[in-house]
Each structure stands twice: as C-alpha cells, then as structure tokens.
Design goal:
The chain is α+β, with helices and mostly antiparallel strands and 94 residues long. Helices cover 12% and strands 20% of the residues. It has one helix and three strands, in the order E-H-E-E. A three-stranded antiparallel beta sheet has the order 1-3-2, covered by helices on one side. Strand 2 and strand 3 form a beta hairpin. The protein is globular, with a radius of gyration of 16 Å.
C-alpha cells in the first residue's frame, strides 16, 4: 500500500534532503520553529518496523512529496495469528 502526501510550499533544499529523517534535524530556513525535529524520524522508524519505508522528493519553491509504502498483510497475518515473539514485520508478505 502506498500513500503520498504533497504540498506546494517552500520545498526542501537538495542539500537538506539526505538529513530530513535524522533525529532532531531542522533546516535552517524552516518556516515553523516550534518543532523538535523528531516527527519524520519517528514516522520513518514506525514504517521500517512494519516492513515499509518513507521517501521524499522536493523542489525548492515548488513543494515536497512524501511517499509512505507499507506491505499489505494476508487476512491470516494478524497479531492473533503470529507465534509468540514474531512481529508483523517478519510475517510472510503477499
């Protein structure tokens, strides 16, 4: 399953793109200074724990697009159907 979220804001400088998922990172030209720089890092960690990923594309002055990709699980791949200690991320994917 893939979900994309895009905006038409100020975008992200090319030099900043490799750092946007780093904990506590905030771009120097960040429009909003109230954040701690944890949101994208936490979201990426959650996606990866479930066998997915988050990617970003951005053009300064035109906006950014974040794409979240998560694997679909079979109907039997529910927490109740997993053996003790097995995570959903390690369950067979279709």
């Amino acid at each position: 399953m893939t979900i994309a979220v895009a905006d038409t804001g100020i975008g992200i400088a090319e030099a900043d793109l490799p750092k946007v998922f780093d904990r506590f990172y905030r771009a120097e030209n960040a429009r909003f200074r109230s954040g701690l720089g944890l949101g994208l890092s936490i979201a990426q960690g959650i996606a990866e724990q479930h066998g997915g990923m988050i990617t970003v594309e951005s053009t300064p002055g035109r906006g950014s697009r974040f794409t979240v990709t998560l694997p679909l699980l079979n109907q039997v791949d529910t927490p109740e159907s997993l053996s003790a200690g097995e995570s959903l991320a390690s369950a067979p994917k279709t």
